Amino acid sequence: MPQAGGTYHHGDLRAACLRAARELLEEDGSAGLSLRAVARRAGVSATAPYRHYADRDALVSAVAAQGYRELAEHLAAAHPSPTTPDGLAAVAVAYVRFALDRPALFRVMFAEPCDPNSEERVAATAAISEYVRGVVRGAFPGADAEVLSTTVWALVHGLAFLHLDGKLDASTPDVVADRVRTAVQALFTTPAALSQAKG
Amino acid sequence: MPQAGGTYHHGDLRAACLRAARELLEEDGSAGLSLRAVARRAGVSATAPYRHYADRDALVSAVAAQGYRELAEHLAAAHPSPTTPDGLAAVAVAYVRFALDRPALFRVMFAEPCDPNSEERVAATAAISEYVRGVVRGAFPGADAEVLSTTVWALVHGLAFLHLDGKLDASTPDVVADRVRTAVQALFTTPAALSQAKG
DNA sequence: CTACAATGTATGCGGCGTTCACATCGAGAC
DNA sequence: GTCTCGATGTGAACGCCGCATACATTGTAG
To answer: For the whole model, what pTM was predicted?
Structure first.
């Protein structure tokens, strides 16, 4: 009976597991995210979470899906619907910032093989994809939105991961933000000059 | 005595462990990469690998470092030192191809928190970074190599991950290669048109 | 009030990483 | 040639893990 003065039924163990998982993720990284630890933190027996999640992967997928939703909010908060390269750069900075502030969560969202089973997860990533496309469409109505949004997303996603893995200096938020802005601007401003410089 | 007709001493267990780890990685993904499984495959007791690797992370780091070296060779094989956007695009395609052909290895190389302890690993990633910078310098002598190489690497790295995670269609090598080429070209050709289209 | 479905518990299995004491081997000192 | 010692491999053991199974408790619908 892990719960001393509590009731036998938890009330909302599903949500409690998710909360515990997020806490463990931030405290100990993804290595600390075990079903047993989650159960302990929720004050419940080791196997209770199985009533709400089929297995560990299901819980992890739920955490990832929640991360996607938070990322979407975070980006929207940075700029609801940018229509200029600068606005888009602000969103890009927010994306990378999100990754660096929640490294373990971001890795869970992207670094693990994505199981196509979790509808929640698939829907959440589709939403992000849609959002990026919409932003690009708004900022560059004349361009091929498909190609450009892929390019922008990949660029920003790559920046996030390279910073996360220590391949790029991420010692201060400012240096990161500057680099992201510079890279995004490079995507929109340098090429003509480059073609010339080469010849 | 796991080794029936063999000798007590293995001979080169260090290398055997690495080989076994690579095989397990390709067969069962990173989940199957356990020290015990490596030891079994090497025909050795469960604790023997500890004579050559401090812990599991050390072995994983060694695998990652080997992956970095192979990636460098793979890129060089695609094009020794490109000097045109097309040549650079070919290298980019090779980068993404490498990731998609060895998904588990690529994740080990980039998706796990990189421990700065492993000198081997740090050196190998620095070599990749240098290579990219060199390629960019060769292809665009007039540009800011630092900024542009970061941008290019991030773009290509992001493309690799988004394909790997199923965020972009990777059903055939051709469709992937086309997308990568298009994205890289977008980095060098579209912006002028974009600035106009927007106004 | 009772039966049932939902929810949580207890126990147990095999696998894992890691530690420690011990066994075996190869090579150099005498 | 023998001895000794460091390097290498073994075995048992600990605590953690995911998960399956059988059982206990509870709210609720009839």
So the answer is: 0.90
